[in-house]
Write a structure and sequence with these properties.
The structure holds two protein chains of two kinds. Chain A contains no helices and eleven strands. By secondary structure, chain A is an all-beta fold. Chain A is globular and about 40 Å long. Chain A starts with a strand and ends with a strand. In chain A, about 35% of the residues are buried. Chain B is an all-beta fold. Chain B is built from no helices and eleven strands. In chain B, the strands form two sheets. In chain B, strands 2, 4, 5, 6, 9, 10 and 11 form a seven-stranded mixed sheet that branches. In chain B, strands 1-3-8-7 form a four-stranded antiparallel sheet, with no helix packed on it. In chain B, about 30% of the residues are buried. The chains are: A mainly beta, B mainly beta. The interface of A and B includes residues 87 and 94 of A.
Chain lengths: ~110, ~120
């Protein structure tokens, strides 16, 4: 039961360009969304979050957009840097439940 | 100065054995979690503890039991290990549980369990 889906297992972009990672969810009870970044052999690290009362949250090069009607959120990284290369997990929470997507592997080429 | 630590990092064992994974956080958080990352790379929450009380218990087999001796520790005990238990297990912690259910969590480095 994949309530949170990241349909792109991988994404490759050129350094300096924009990276857009997408996430879809099915459970309308989710009202808080988070993005985590994971390097190999490390645990995920929190990147940015957004509450359902907002449609955009920005933190430096990272911006998360939420479209509640479409049950879709996206993470924009601009400009992308080689150090951003990692696996990005989308997570959704609400009603004492939390689900993660399967992750998208981002590769930023120099 | 590790915030959330897990031991061991790797664990290889035979089917039927009983094993434990330890987790400690030095962030002063009051909520700790265990996650399982399966072969398809999905992170699934198994347990969370808030103020030494279990507040979420997903439908994991009762062979898995979390033990929290104090607020800074949440250990995972697994009895009668099975092949399907092979996975990476992550411990995490957060301050509070959040009005929406979850706050931002800090994860440990993971423990790769291999059951032969």
């Amino acid at each position: 039961d994949q309530q949170v889906k990241q349909n792109s297992p991988s994404l490759s972009v050129q350094e300096g360009r924009i990276s857009i990672l997408n996430c879809d969810y099915t459970n309308s009870m989710f009202d808080y969304f988070l993005w985590y970044k994971k390097y190999p052999a490390e645990g995920p690290t929190f990147l940015i979050s957004i509450s359902s009362i907002k449609d955009k949250n920005e933190d430096g090069r990272f911006t998360v957009f939420l479209n509640k009607s479409a049950k879709h959120l996206s993470l924009h990284i601009v400009p992308s840097q080689p150090g951003d290369s990692a696996v990005y997990f989308c997570a959704a929470s609400g009603n004492n439940d939390m689900r993660f997507g399967a992750g998208t592997r981002l590769t930023v080429k120099p | 100065d590790t915030a959330v630590s897990q031991t061991p990092k790797y664990l290889v064992t035979q089917m039927g054995n009983d094993k434990s994974i330890k987790c400690e956080q030095n962030l002063g958080h009051d909520t700790m979690y265990w996650y399982k990352q399966d072969s398809k790379k999905f992170l699934k929450i198994m347990f969370s503890y808030n103020n030494k009380e279990l507040i979420i218990n997903e439908t994991v087999p009762n062979r898995f039991s979390p033990k929290s001796p104090d607020k800074a520790h949440l250990n995972l005990h697994i009895n009668s290990l099975e092949l399907g238990d092979s996975a990476v297990y992550f411990c995490a912690s957060s301050q509070g549980f959040g009005t929406s259910g979850f706050n931002e969590q800090f994860f440990g480095p993971g423990t790769r369990l291999t059951v032969l």
